[in-house]
Write a structure and sequence with these properties.
The chain is built from six helices and 14 strands. The chain is α+β, with helices and mostly antiparallel strands and 250 residues long. It has two domains: 132 residues, Fructose-1,6-Bisphosphatase, Chain A, domain 1; 109 residues, D-Maltodextrin-Binding Protein, domain 2, CATH 3.40.190.80. The strands form three sheets. The protein has a seven-stranded mixed β-sheet with strand order 3-4-5-6-7-8-9, with helices on both faces. A five-stranded mixed β-sheet has the order 11-10-12-14-13, sandwiched between helices. Strand 6 and strand 7 form a beta hairpin. Helix 1 packs antiparallel against helix 2 and helix 5 runs parallel beside helix 6. The chain is globular. It starts with a helix and ends in a 10-residue tail after the last strand.
Length: 250
């Protein structure tokens, strides 16, 4: 099944890569939260193909909330994470697919079609990039890049975000804000970042990436340095290479 999910992610990534002029539609709830015809098209591809692959699974995606259950199997997907990057032709976006069983991720696939980088993880079997095992960095925080997300849809969090970004700059080698949380999490798993955090993420932003980080030897917490227990909820997320990185949130 994992191989089939990887193939589905690659097929959806090809649609993203071949897109030329995306039609931009603004969601009604927030003028910064954009959606294109490709987000909707790819999500429908994911829903149809994944639920055909595993008919007993329910489905939860960013673009339109389908019926889903916390019990049993559920796919949580982001058809294009980094939609603003996609619209602006920055070529830093990805397809994200997580399979949960009774509320916990058991498979995660993240595909960047622009770099042709396929990340995947299966519970208890490690994390991989294009077939090679990956691991979080063993560098101390002072020698590591720290990535963050700016929670752009929630202005109440902007002040704390900027304060934590400033602290990150003091504690780490440098900071990065790339605009695609699923890839930030994958990069922690691959050892490119020592830490990634964002104060508000949706389940499709973090479900697959959290499994990648954990299977690569990393730690998942909230930005309050607590265990992340609800993979269906809106949450802050901190993906750490090792426990010492929690010093940022002291």
């Amino acid at each position: 099944m994992l191989r089939q999910i990887i193939d589905i992610a690659r097929e959806c990534g090809a649609v993203m890569r071949e897109a030329h002029a995306a039609k931009i539609e603004k969601k009604q709830d927030n003028p910064r939260n954009l959606v294109t015809e490709y987000d909707i098209r790819i999500q429908e591809m994911l829903r149809q193909k994944l639920t055909t692959l595993l008919p007993e699974a329910t489905f939860l995606g960013e673009e339109g909330k389908y019926d889903f259950r916390r019990e049993g199997f559920c796919f949580i997907c982001d058809p294009i994470d980094g939609t603003t990057n996609f619209i602006k032709n920055l070529k830093h976006s990805a397809v994200s697919i997580a399979l949960l069983n009774n509320g916990k991720p058991v498979m995660g696939v993240i595909y960047d079609p622009y770099l042709d980088e396929m990340f995947w993880a299966e519970k208890g079997k490690g994390a991989f990039l294009n077939g090679k095992a990956i691991h979080t960095t063993d560098e101390p925080l002072a020698n590591s890049l720290i990535a963050f997300g700016s929670a752009p849809y929630n202005s109440a969090l902007h002040g704390r975000t900027i304060a934590l970004a400033a602290k990150s700059l003091e504690l780490g080698l440098d900071i990065r804000r790339a605009g695609a949380a699923v890839l930030d999490l994958a990069y922690v798993a691959a050892g490119r970042y020592g830490l990634f955090w964002e104060l508000e993420l949706q389940p499709w932003d973090y479900a697959a990436g959290c499994l990648l980080v954990q299977e690569a030897g990393g730690i998942i917490r909230t930005a309050e340095n607590k265990e992340l227990t609800d993979y269906f909820g809106v949450s802050s997320v901190a993906a750490m290479a090792h426990p010492q990185t929690a010093a940022l949130f002291d």
